[in-house]
Specification:
Blueprint (H helix, E strand, L loop, with lengths): L8 E3 L6 E3 L8 E3 L18 E3 L4 E3 L6 E4 L9 E2 H4 L15 E4 L6 E4 L30 E2 L6 H13 L18 E35 L5 E30 L6 H6 L9 E2 L9 E3 L5 H24 L3 E30 L2 E8 L5 E3 L5 H23 L2
Parallel strand pairs: 1-6, 10-15, 11-14
Antiparallel strand pairs: 2-3, 4-5, 5-6, 7-15, 8-9, 9-14, 10-13, 11-12, 11-15, 15-16, 16-17
């Protein structure tokens, strides 16, 4: 039977930093609790507690003491986009009071971390971080976080399988397949909600068929008249309106990772988001967003535009559609800043940066890979040798 001192303790859930919606006549404010911005110390030995994906708890690596993170009763707040753009810098907040930040001169990433975590090397490009760490500038506070679920060892195994499936990969790629080859990082994302009303003009195309007569030469060399059905399109002008509610359009807030790789990591289990609590960041780094709130909304509008175009084509109907103009109005725009977990590895080969990213919720691996021309050359020589041997064997009497 476990002794009481070995049982996991409940960690008191800190007050969540969130945007408080007020009436139009009241100033908009962001409330930050001092209780939530602190380091987490082990009550047994005084060492730092780190978040452990396996247990979903803060764990001491020295005495194995565990602190459960209490479920927050706070709702994840969607912030009013237009009003938030008017916030003054002093109304923004920090990730945590003891958070440090260092700028990477290689890729421009701003990496934040809380001691005892250190940042000696950039997780995104492998560049040595020689700049002095400093207190970060205030940011739009995260509303939610998706905690790490895949352990580092499991992520390493997933990378091993990914590397094994890459033909002609150089041996240097194998450096990712060790625990020290990757690091856990929370990546910033924005989610946007918007109600859209789109007015459009265009044309509907309806197919019809006409009989066309022509002359051809038959098998006897005689000229004969033949006919065939030819498809034509009749175009009719159309105009109309479509509406759609967009919920949680996900936009990456980082420029340090390839957009294609991040897109391939989806889907994320966003229903499992937790109200932001610095306890989930204990032992991990977090990247400061490089894509600003307005820039993110511009990208979200591009995503929405593609879906709106499909809606318009569906409403126009017919066999083909032409869209001449679309005017879209956005209303009830809300957003939230969230942190999603990944493992990242990076290295340079022949002056080119290669990155591997693991979804720390599902274990999905995506990345860029180089080719070993030595292996390709040796394989080519082997194939040619085999073909030559087969040819030689066939030619023997």
């Amino acid at each position: 039977m476990k002794s009481p001192e070995n049982e996991p303790h409940k960690l008191k859930s800190p007050e969540i930093t969130s945007l408080q919606h007020t009436s139009d006549k009241q100033p908009l404010e962001v409330k930050t609790s001092i209780e939530k911005v602190r380091r987490y110390r082990c009550p047994g030995c005084g060492a730092d507690l780190l978040f452990e994906p396996k247990d979903g708890a803060l764990t001491c690596n020295f005495c194995q003491h565990k602190e459960l993170i209490a479920e927050s009763k706070e709702a994840i707040v969607e912030c009013d986009y237009e009003r938030y753009l008017k916030l003054l810098p002093e109304q923004l907040t920090d990730l945590a009071a003891d958070t440090l930040e260092v700028d990477c001169k290689g890729c421009g990433a701003k990496v934040t971390f809380t001691p005892p975590v250190t940042a000696s090397q950039c997780s995104f490009c492998g560049t040595a971080l020689v700049a002095q760490a400093k207190s970060p500038d205030p940011i739009v506070a995260p509303a939610a976080v998706l905690p790490f679920r895949v352990e580092k060892a499991a992520a390493t195994d997933a990378i091993k399988k990914w590397i094994a499936s890459r033909w002609f990969a150089p041996d240097a790629l194998k450096r990712f397949a060790v625990p020290g080859g990757i690091s856990g990082v929370y990546i910033p994302f924005w989610t946007y909600d918007s109600y859209t009303t789109s007015h459009y003009t265009g044309e509907r195309g309806q197919y019809y068929y006409e009989t066309e007569y022509y002359t051809e030469t038959d098998s006897n060399g005689n000229q004969v008249q033949a006919s065939r059905q030819v498809r034509r399109t009749a175009w009719h002008p159309v105009a109309g309106r479509v509406t759609r509610w967009f919920d949680d359009v996900l936009i990456a807030g980082t420029k340090s990772l390839p957009a294609r790789a991040l897109a391939e990591l989806e889907p994320w289990d966003l229903p499992e988001l937790k109200p932001y609590d610095p306890a989930f960041l204990a032992g991990y780094k977090a990247e400061r967003y490089q894509v600003t709130l307005p820039e993110g909304f511009e990208r979200a509008q591009a995503v929405m535009s593609g879906i709106i175009e499909n809606d318009i084509r569906y409403q126009i109907g017919g066999d083909e559609q032409r869209i001449f103009s679309v005017q879209t109005q956005h209303s009830a725009i809300t957003f939230k800043h969230i942190l999603l977990p990944v493992y990242v590895g990076a290295y340079h080969l022949q002056n080119k940066l290669y990155q591997v990213v693991v979804n720390a919720r599902t274990g999905e691996v995506q990345g860029e890979r180089p080719y070993s021309w030595i292996k390709i050359t040796l394989f080519t020589i082997l194939v040619i040798s085999i073909l030559y041997f087969l040819w030689w064997a066939i030619q023997r009497p």
